[in-house]
Write a structure and sequence with these properties.
Elements lengths: L30 H10 L4 E8 L4 E8 L3 H10 L11 E6 L2 E6 L6 E2 L13 H16 L4 E7 L4 E8 L4 E5 L4 E4 L2 H7 L11 H12 L5 H8 L2 E8 L14 E9 L9 H10 L7 E6 L2 H17 L2 H4 L2 E7 L4 E8 L1 H19 L7 H12 L5 H23 L5 H13 L1 H15 L9 H9 L1 H14 L1
Parallel strand pairs: 5-14
Antiparallel strand pairs: 1-2, 2-3, 3-4, 6-12, 6-13, 7-8, 7-10, 8-9, 10-11, 13-14
Helix pairs in contact: 10-11, 10-12, 10-13, 11-12, 13-14, 14-15, 15-16
Length: 470
């Protein structure tokens, strides 16, 4: 007998003081007005209009353009919009009737250690966004469930089923495709050699339909009608990230009701749906707190543990959800420091390669300062890595300016390796550094040896030419 407990969304309507009942109501924002606003707000919102020929309709993808503090300030000023302006928001206009086809999770931020640093509570937006509702729930003696979920390092994707169009809506962050079945996918899939963001949802669709062969398709369509299932596409050969995986896969982690303000469905509901249809679901842990001090202790332990955990164990980090029995109270994230270090170093490498001729500043010095700030636990291994990475950046900057200044091909190849095959590139550089024990980049640069790996035949010809000259 099927367990029906999580087949329907949690829609309890009991009256609770200080609990926002709007979370369970239908979207109150007029979608037509939102689209009109997005078309005018060129500096704030991005809107892309697409024809849907088979249905003689139009669909819109709407997202916020702002980043970091500007984005946070926007949501502070427009708090209701955080419920609707989510990653992947796609709106259908069929005969002037507007409905949401898919939407992802709302924007969420790194968890602030409010319990350890009371001054952080001065950031009222983050405090309210992350912990205020949970503390209010505990004051009312309503327990809070902490959900700790592995954060996979891939490309975000979303899958929904439209009962109006009778088609799957398969999407990356900013691109949606519509396929009724595998035959429809084969008929409409573009050239498989396309290497672009537009290709990504077709890659997702290929895996999705391949995995559906032995599934109850009608039941899956029913379960995903008016809901969006969210996941990470890992080991995509065209979008390689820092964490390496053995094979391509769709790893699911969240479920969102397309027509409710609630941040997301309960993680247990998402996990139940994934298990029911034999879909991969990310590693998830559940903990309970019935007092503020217990919640704070759990969060502090998780934060300290994950941040100091090596990349090989905790990967990118975790996502934390706080639920009570009525709603999702907040979503936040914790990154491992080792992951943050790699992300920073990759950014500095790619920026240096693109801009080394435009400035005399030392990218190594800028990196070292930022990396030391990230090393908040003063980890000795990370300190040694920072020192080594600083030397690598200095070596690359010197090599580009003094040896390869006119070699555009070398610059393009290094940039491609840093951006698309970062871990492979990084491990090779580290191995060469250890093998050759290079310490003075002006006398004996490590990228000379890396150059030999990239162009062994060219290097050999140069050596023969030099010998003949002598």
């Amino acid at each position: 007998m099927q367990n029906k407990k999580y087949d329907i969304a949690f829609q309890k309507q009991q009256s609770l003081p200080n609990i926002n009942q709007k979370q369970f109501q239908q979207e109150e924002i007029d979608l037509e007005n939102l689209i009109a606003y997005a078309k005018k707000a060129n500096n704030t919102l991005f809107i892309k209009e697409n024809p849907l020929n088979q249905a003689k309709a139009i669909y819109y993808i709407v997202r916020i353009k702002l980043k970091d503090k500007d984005e946070q300030k926007f949501f502070e000023t427009n708090p209701d919009l955080i419920f609707i302006l989510r990653r992947g928001l796609t709106i259908l206009n069929l005969n002037n009737n507007y409905t949401i086809l898919r939407k992802g999770l709302p924007k969420f931020y790194d968890l602030g250690d409010f319990w350890r640093n009371k001054e952080q509570q001065q950031n009222q937006f983050l405090y309210k966004n992350q912990l205020h509702n949970a503390y209010q729930s505990l004051k009312l003696n309503i327990p809070v469930t902490i959900v700790q979920q592995q954060q996979e390092n891939g490309e975000n994707f979303q899958i929904s089923f439209s009962s109006i169009l009778q088609t799957w809506v398969i999407s990356s962050k900013n691109v949606s495709i519509f396929c009724k079945n595998y035959d429809d996918y084969l008929l409409n899939c573009p050239n498989k050699d396309i290497h672009s963001p537009e290709r990504l949802p077709w890659q997702i669709a290929e895996i999705w339909f391949s995995d559906m062969i032995e599934k109850n398709i009608e039941q899956l369509q029913k379960d995903l009608t008016d809901h969006t299932l969210i996941g990470e596409f890992v080991n995509n050969p065209y979008f390689v990230h820092i964490i390496e995986y053995q094979q391509s896969a769709l790893k699911f982690f969240a479920l969102v009701n397309n027509h409710e303000r609630n941040l997301c469905c309960h993680t247990r509901q998402a996990e139940h749906l994934a298990n029911k249809h034999n879909l991969q679901f990310v590693k998830t842990k559940y903990m309970q707190a019935n007092k503020k001090i217990i919640l704070d202790n759990h969060l502090q332990r998780i934060q300290d543990s994950i941040q100091q955990s090596p990349l090989s164990i905790s990967g990118e980090g975790v996502v934390l959800y706080l639920f009570n029995e009525f709603e999702c109270l907040s979503i936040s994230k914790i990154k491992t420091i080792e992951y943050e270090q790699h992300k920073l170093f990759r950014t500095k490498l790619t920026t240096l390669i693109q801009q080394y001729q435009e400035t005399q500043q030392s990218y190594a010095d800028a990196y070292q300062q930022e990396a030391n700030d990230l090393n908040q636990y003063d980890d000795r291994d990370i300190s040694r890595t920072i020192e080594l990475n600083t030397h690598i950046l200095s070596s690359l900057q010197y090599y580009l300016i003094n040896v390869k200044q006119k070699d555009l091909f070398f610059k393009e190849q290094i940039y491609k390796l840093c951006s698309k095959y970062y871990m492979q590139f990084y491990n090779q550089i580290i191995e060469l550094t250890k093998t050759h024990n290079v310490k003075n980049y002006e006398m004996d640069n490590i990228f000379k040896y890396y150059d030999q790996l990239l162009y062994p035949q060219v290097q050999k010809k140069q050596e023969i030419k030099q010998m003949n000259f002598e």
